[in-house]
Every structure is written in C-alpha cells, then in structure tokens.
Design a protein that fits this description.
The complex is a heterodimer of chains A (338) and B (246). In chain A, helix 6 packs antiparallel against helix 12 (229-255). Chain A contains 15 helices and 2 strands. Chain A has a two-stranded antiparallel sheet with strand order 1-2. Chain A is 73% helix and 1% strand. Chain A has a single domain (58-337), classed as ABC transporter involved in vitamin B12 uptake, BtuC. Chain A has helices at residues 9-18, 24-29, 32-50, 57-82, 90-106, 111-134, 140-159, 171-179, 187-205, 207-217, 219-224, 229-255, 266-276, 290-307, 315-337; strands at residues 181-182, 185-186. With 338 residues, chain A is an all-alpha fold. Chain A is globular. The two termini of chain A are 26 Å apart. With 246 residues, chain B is an alpha/beta fold. Chain B has a domain at 4-79 and 162-240: P-loop containing nucleotide triphosphate hydrolases (Rossmann fold). Chain B has 8 helices and 12 strands. The chains are: A mainly alpha (338), B alpha/beta (246). Chain A binds chain B through residues 1-3, 9-10, 12-13, 16-17, 19, 21, 201, 204-207, 210-211, 213-214, 216-218, 220-227, 284-285, and chain B through 72-73, 76, 82, 84, 87-93, 97, 101-104, 106, 113-115, 117, 134, 136, 138-139, 143-145, 147-148, 175-178.
Chain lengths: 338, 246
C-alpha cells in the first residue's frame, strides 16, 4: 500500500479536508484589489503630508473624474480578460464612437440619437471582434489589433480629419452629463459607481457572470456542461466595446469637442488598470471593484508625481512599475497558495 | 427491454475505421465494463453515446426509443451523464459551482433572476454526503485532492437523477484509497438502479464492480460476457489479441 510513504494519502486527504472555509474578511484579504486599495490609502496618507493641495476637494474631484473614464472601460476589459482574451481596440473605438456621436448631434439630432449612434457603433465593432474570435477561433490579440487600426482609420475618414465642437440642440445637456457633477461628485464618477455595482452583482449573482468565469477557468469543461461558449464570448467583447463607447460619450461631453485622436493609446492604460485591479491574463479571475481601484491607483500616481514636483516624464515609468509589481504580487501569492 | 441499446455502431474518421458494427446493451442497475487497448475505440464509443459526435452508421436506443445526439446536451436531456477522463472541472470555481455548472439554480425577484447560492451549496452538500465524500461545497476545486475532484464530477451526474452514467477512466490518476472510494460510488449508483458504463484499463476495478465486461479490439467488439463467466486472464488475452474471440 502507499500508506507507508513519508506522508500517507490518508494524511494528505485529511489535511486538505481540514482546511477551513474563509470568512468574508479573510477572503477579501486574499484578493489583489484589497492590497491595491491599501497602497492607494498609503499613497494618499503620504501625499497629504507632501502636498497641501492633495486633500483639497478640487484635487480629489479631478482625480476621481480623470480615472472614471478608465475605470468604466476597465470594467468591460476585465470581463474580456476573464475569458483569457484581450481587447486592444478600445482606445480606437473611443475615437470612432466619439466621432460618430459628435457627427450625429452636429447634424442636428438630439442627444438620444447621439447616444444611440455612439453605442450602436460600439456594439457593432464588439460584435465583429467577438464573432471573429469565438466562431472563427482567431487569436483575440490579432483580431483586436487589426480592429485598433481599422476603427481609428474609419474615425479619421468619417470625421474628415476635422474637430467637432458643435453638438446641436442638446449641446448644453451633453456637456453637463460629461463635465458637471451631482452632489459634488462628477457625473462620470456616478456612472462608474453604478456600473461597478452592476458588475459586482453580475459577477456574483448572474448566470452570465458565472459562465464567463467558468469559460476563463476551463473553456472545454464549460462547453461540455452545455454553456453556449461562443455566444458568451461574443457578448463579452460587445460589453467591452459598449463600455468604451460610454466612456467616449462622457469624455467628449467633458471636453466639449472631439477629434479622431480621442482615446489614442488608452487601451494600454485600460489593460494596465484591469491587471493592477486583479484581472489575470490567463483568465478565470475577475473582480468588479478591481477595475475602478486599478484605474484609481494609476491616476493617483500621475497626480502625486505632479503635486510632488517630479517631472511628468516619469509618469509612465511609475505606471509601468506598478503594473509589473501587481503581477509579481499575484505570482507570489499564487505560489504560496500552491 | 434494455436501458441503452447500441446496434451496429460504426464510426469512421476519413479513411480510419474507429468502430465497426458494435452492439452493446446496458440494463438498469447494471454496471458494464468496457475494456480494450489504446486505440481500440472505447473513447470513440463513449463519445458517441455522450453526444460529442454522431455515429457514421448504427442506431442508439434508450428505453427502446431511437435517439439522435448532435451535442452533449442532447445526451444529458435523455438521461445520460458522463464523467470525463479529465473530469472537465473548472479549477477556479467552487465544488458547488462545478456541480451546477450549466444548470444553475436561480431565484426570481421581480423581473430579475439571480443565482441561488444557498440552495446550490445545500444541494451539493447533500450530494457529497450521499456519496460519503468529505468534499465541501464551498471549496475551490483547485485546492482539492484527486478523490474529491472525482466526487465533484460524479456528484454532477446525480443532479438530474440520470438513467445511465458513463465513466471514462475514473480511477486512472488517483491514489489507492481514492480508488476504493470511487468504486464504492459506483456500487452506490448500482444500488439506486442507475446503469453504469465503466471504461477502464484497470482489470481489478472492472472485476470488482462490473456485472459484465465487453472487450473492444480494433473497433470491433470481440467479447461480451458476465463477470462470472470470464477471468482477468481471458480478458487480457482478448484485449491483446492472443484470444481472437470469446
């Protein structure tokens, strides 16, 4: 029998069975967003001593508004990354959907039509991405890289390379939605808060969320369990695109103008925010709170460097550093777990 | 009338004849061992019954009614559940989530439907208790021992109270103690008048729990005998081809 070994199977089984279930707080401590949140608080405390401006309402208002756009997109990106995919087209898609929204409203249509056109364009691009990836089994990296180029190009063509700053009859409302605040909180931040709650519910309580996580864990097993894997994967890319479209709609309203360069290279920031927030590129891991927390950390770094008087040219360095540290942390925790 | 009746099942992949005219019947409460060397067609036959792909020729009957499966769900809806060799579990989900994967329990709140975690944990716990397994529903599958993973895969088949459970090499990669557990699980399935088809390389396991053993060699069934009428030596001979037919 095997029981003569240094540690018998019975003992190993016993030790596995003895592992205690985790309480809510213990479980939270084991997640990446928790530790990123801790570092956000730490940086915040340090900065409140370094700079008098940091804790002012104005500065916090700016920080939260600035990261809201990335946070919204990171929520969608986290869903894509959870299926072990990637969406590189979100930055270009912002340019395209922003231009589409601008053109429709410039032509004299109301904000409702502008929003509809913006989101339809986003959904269409997401659908193309998703179908190519799920049904034709092309690599997500390649498909969305191609879409990155194509979407930007179409944005340039339809905008005729001109800036749009006239948003028709609902200009004031449009600029209010993107640029103003309710109860002292910028509107894009409200959108981020609401969407984060929605995604939290989705990941925890919806069948769709459960299936997306299952696909990320073992797509073959999900398929054998009768989950419509292809349709779910398509929907994930559509969701990511819709988040990008929504972010573009808000951002254009804030800027009060749009060019086809809107969102240039944002895909990298969004992916970084998702990964810092705990998304694992191997798939199967997702946190709703991770997206805003990851985006917040990146904006906080930018803001802190600015206020501390460090050359803004260092900003990308620190964002990159935190990205690598976040992944390293995940690796170390995984190794300890196994 | 047999629960499952396969008649003249053939399957070819291009020029390769994986199965040729295989007949097999399984009755309720009966465990049938399906043996054969690598490439003999065991897995192909299992996959046909499980609905992974249709046979090139032949008929599948369940309770005397002919069925056509095009995808795994078709087989499941006809009361056939499969434990795959690699168990087909999602490591990143809990035991209960895996048991209910693809058929989650839901509650309704107005127009909103949401996962009923409580009911799923409870039911999964009951299933593990029935199987006399120490698996806990809230544990992640990633943290589990081979025997516990096996219990999850088997518990999943019991959700719908299937008529037939197919098991593909359930004892291939687990410890001796865990093999005993899995064999006990098969006995329990038989007691509750489920039919079991056990695909295995391990002679002692088949002789321990099966009522009948069928042997495939190069896509043909070369033997189908009650356990009492054959011996491990004879089955070995049939598998290797030392004995032509029995």
């Amino acid at each position: 029998m095997n029981d003569t070994g240094p540690k018998s199977h019975a003992e190993i089984d016993e030790s596995v069975t003895q592992k205690q279930e985790l309480s809510g707080l213990q479980a939270a401590i084991r997640t990446q967003p928790f530790w990123v949140l801790i570092s956000i608080v730490a940086i915040g405390i340090v900065m409140s001593f370094v700079s008098d401006v940091f804790m002012t309402e104005r500065n916090l208002f700016n920080i939260t508004r600035n990261f809201a756009f990335f946070g919204i997109m990171a929520l969608g990106m986290s869903a894509v990354i959870c299926t072990a995919g990637i969406d590189l087209s979100v930055g270009s898609l912002m340019g395209l959907t922003g231009i589409v929204a601008g053109l429709v409203m410039q032509a004299g249509y109301g904000i409702g039509w502008g929003f509809l056109a913006c989101m339809s364009a986003a959904a269409l691009v997401g659908l193309v991405n998703g179908v190519l990836i799920a049904y034709l089994r092309m690599a997500p990296f390649v498909v969305t890289l191609g879409m990155l180029a194509m979407a930007r190009s179409i944005a340039m063509v339809v905008s005729n390379n001109k800036m749009i700053y006239n948003f028709g009859p609902d200009q004031d409302l449009f600029e209010w939605i993107g640029g103003e605040s309710v109860l002292g909180v910028p509107n894009p931040v409200w959108v981020l808060i609401i969407l984060t709650c929605v995604f939290w519910w989705v990941w925890r309580f919806s069948t769709w969320g459960r299936w997306v996580i299952a696909i990320g864990g073992n797509a073959q097993a999900a398929k054998l369990s009768g989950i419509p894997v292809e349709r779910i994967v398509v929907s994930v890319y559509v969701i990511s695109s819709l988040c990008a479209g929504l972010a573009a709609f808000l951002m254009v309203g804030w800027f009060g103008s749009v060019t086809n360069a809107l969102g240039l290279t944002y895909e990298l920031n969004v992916i970084a925010a998702s990964v810092i927030g705990g998304a694992n590129l191997m798939g199967g891991v997702v946190y709703a709170v991770g997206a805003p927390i990851g985006a917040a950390l990146m904006e906080l770094i930018r803001n802190s460097l600015l206020l501390a008087g460090i050359d803004a040219l260092w900003q990308q360095f620190f964002v990159g550093l935190f990205l690598i540290l976040a992944v390293l942390l995940e690796q170390i925790r995984n190794r300890r777990r196994n | 009338m047999s629960l499952l009746e396969l008649q003249g099942i053939a399957k070819s992949f291009g020029a390769i004849q994986a199965l040729q005219g295989v007949d097999l019947t399984v009755s309720a409460g009966e465990a049938v061992g399906l043996m054969g060397d690598n490439g003999a067609g065991k897995s192909t036959l299992m996959k046909i019954v499980a609905g992974n792909f249709p046979p090139t020729a032949g008929a599948i009957r369940i309770d005397g009614r002919e069925v056509h499966f095009t995808k795994p769900i078709d087989a499941r809806e006809n009361g056939i559940e499969i434990v795959y060799q690699d168990l087909a579990l999602c490591d990143n989900l809990t035991a209960a989530a895996n048991v209910f994967l693809g058929r989650e329990r839901k509650r309704r709140l107005g127009p909103l439907r949401y996962l009923d975690h409580k009911a799923m944990f409870r039911r999964a716990g009951e299933l593990f208790t029935e199987l006399k397994s120490e698996t806990r529903p809230r544990d992640l599958v990633r943290q589990m021992s081979g025997g516990q993973r096996q219990a999850v895969a088997i518990a999943r088949t019991r959700l719908s109270d299937p008529k037939l459970v197919l098991m593909d090499e359930p004892t291939a990669a687990i410890s001796v103690r865990q093999v005993a557990e899995v064999l006990a699980l098969i006995e329990r399935l038989k007691e509750t008048s489920h039919a079991v088809v056990l695909v295995s390389h391990r002679m002692p396991d088949v002789f321990a729990v099966c009522d009948r053993v069928a042997v495939l060699r190069r896509g043909r069934k070369v033997s189908d005998k009650a356990i009492g009428d054959t011996s491990p030596e004879e089955v070995t001979g049939l598998i290797t081809g030392a004995i032509e037919q029995a």
